[in-house]
UniProtKB/TrEMBL annotation:
Membrane-crossing residue ranges in chain numbering: none
Name by which UniProt lists this protein: KIB1-4 beta-propeller domain-containing protein
Domain KIB1-4 beta-propeller: 2-168
One Pfam family, short name: Beta-prop_KIB1-4
Domain of life (superkingdom): Eukaryota
Length: 198
């Protein structure tokens, strides 16, 4: 699950991929805005770019000891001009009723970040202009370890944090991993922070 405030509206995306707008006054109400898309990602992140709300879908390869990121897809929230119905997969744990009528919004495929770079992970998701950070690469997704499935192995020292971090290049769909193998455990999860570029 990820949460973001975008243009005065609080949005929530669940692991199933459904996007909801949340109202809290006078009572809490969740309205399905965009349905399941893409359906097969393992993790979803919401991030605000210069003008758009983006959905970043992260894909993993699973092994008996750890997970490894193998790719990303990026989508932007757009108006549903064709009035397509909302793809629906049961909502938040199957508790919400399927929507009636066309979806107000849809996800559109993003091929390039246009001079921006994304930072995704468990604690924070950022979109920054690459021209302000010359040591970083534009049109890339920097990703930190965000695998909670194997936390039991972390507790025993068998799976270290920072195992699955790197840079995904949108132009050629390749990945540079920060650390290929680690022989020592780290006890704290990784986070992103954004220093003042000036």
């Amino acid at each position: 699950m990820d949460i973001i405030e975008f243009r005065g509206i609080l949005y929530v995306v669940y692991k199933l991929g459904n996007l909801y707008a949340v109202e809290t006054n006078p009572i809490t109400k969740m309205t399905l805005i965009a349905g399941t898309f893409p359906p097969d990602a393992a993790r979803y992140y919401l991030v605000e770019s210069s003008k758009d709300l983006l959905l970043v879908a992260r894909y993993f390869q699973y092994t008996s000891r750890y997970t490894k990121t193998i790719g990303f897809k990026v989508y932007r929230l757009a108006e549903n001009k064709k009035c397509d119905p909302i793809p629906y997969n049961g909502g938040a744990f199957g508790l919400l009723q399927p929507p009636q009528g066309p979806a107000p919004k849809i996800w559109k495929d993003v091929k390039t970040l246009r001079g921006q770079m994304l930072f995704v992970g468990r604690n924070r998701t950022l979109c920054l202009p690459s021209n302000l950070y010359p040591k970083c690469k534009g049109n890339c997704i920097y990703f930190a370890d965000d695998n909670d499935i194997f936390d039991i192995f972390r507790a025993s020292g068998n799976r270290p944090y920072l195992h699955d971090g790197g840079v995904y290049h949108m132009n050629n769909k390749t990945i540079e991993y920060f650390i290929e193998e680690m022989s020592y455990p780290l006890s704290l999860p990784s986070i992103w922070f954004s220093p003042n570029p000036c």
